[in-house]
Specification:
The complex is a heterodimer of chains A (about 110) and B (about 110).
Chain A lengths: L3 E3 L2 E5 L4 E7 L6 E7 L5 E8 L4 E4 L2 E6 L4 E6 L8 E8 L6 E3 L3 E6 L1
Chain B lengths: L4 E3 L2 E4 L5 E6 L6 E8 L3 E9 L2 E4 L8 E7 L2 E6 L8 E8 L7 E2 L3 E5 L1
Parallel strand pairs in B: 2-11
Antiparallel strand pairs in B: 1-3, 3-8, 4-5, 4-9, 5-6, 7-8, 9-10, 9-11
The chains are: A mainly beta (about 110), B mainly beta (about 110).
Chain lengths: ~110, ~110
């Protein structure tokens, strides 16, 4: 079955880069997603990557996809305290209907 | 600024009571999802609809949970009877077409005592 794994916690200093990693199992996923959840709020779509791409850049965010290893990462450049949140990766099923979310990585940014 | 709205934001109830949570998806979106989030289980998909028709509710305990879309602007999730293990944050999300780009509401925090 589908399974998405993430590390639980990451702590960085303000101004450093953050790299959040994710592994998934469904090789037929069409898209892979990164969502952000701030305290007391719902998830917010940050970015996504199509499965035939290996990199996507969007301002301070860089998504890297290694299909062979089924590994996805999100790099946040110049991390700010406002980036402190839980980050979820997710894969879609092959029909694009449903998402399977990882357990989330809590990012703490220290001033 | 189009948003998914959910009511109530917080609900405290006693075991055995009925709970109804409501969601207004973004106008024009044709898919609606219900999720439950707990510390132990993370984010679980309970049910989802496309064009108001239920497509998958395999994640939902059938004996006590029910989800409906009476019309395109309202989705409901009902628990009857509620149990303490139902305590969680329930999120509604909406999207258009295939499900990956989902827009989440702020959630309903349910506490069953």
């Amino acid at each position: 079955g589908e399974d998405v794994e993430q590390s639980l916690f990451l702590s960085v200093r303000e101004g450093d880069s953050s790299v959040i990693n994710c592994t998934y199992t469904d090789s037929s996923s069409t898209y892979l997603y990164w969502y952000k959840q701030e305290p007391g709020a719902g998830l917010q779509l940050l970015t996504y990557i199509f499965s035939n791409m290996d990199m996507k850049q969007d301002q301070r965010l860089t998504v890297l996809l290694n299909k062979k290893d089924k590994h996805l990462s999100l790099r946040i450049a110049d991390t700010q305290t406002g980036d402190s949140a839980i980050y979820f990766c997710a894969e879609s099923d092959n029909a694009g209907n449903m998402l399977t979310f990882g357990g989330g990585t809590r990012l703490m940014v220290k001033p | 600024d189009a948003r998914v709205t959910q009511t109530p934001r917080h609900k405290v109830t006693e075991m055995g009571q009925e709970v109804t949570m409501r969601c207004q998806p973004i106008l024009g979106h044709n898919t609606v999802f219900w999720y439950r989030q707990t510390m132990m289980q993370g984010l679980e998909l309970l049910a989802y609809f496309r064009n108001r028709a239920p497509l998958d509710d395999s994640g939902m305990p059938k004996d006590r949970f029910s989800a409906e879309m009476p019309d395109a602007t309202l989705a409901t999730l009902k628990i009857q009877p509620s149990e303490p293990r139902d305590s969680a944050v329930y999120f509604c999300a909406s999207g258009f077409g295939t499900g990956g780009e989902q827009y989440f509401g702020p959630g309903t925090r349910l506490t069953v005592t």
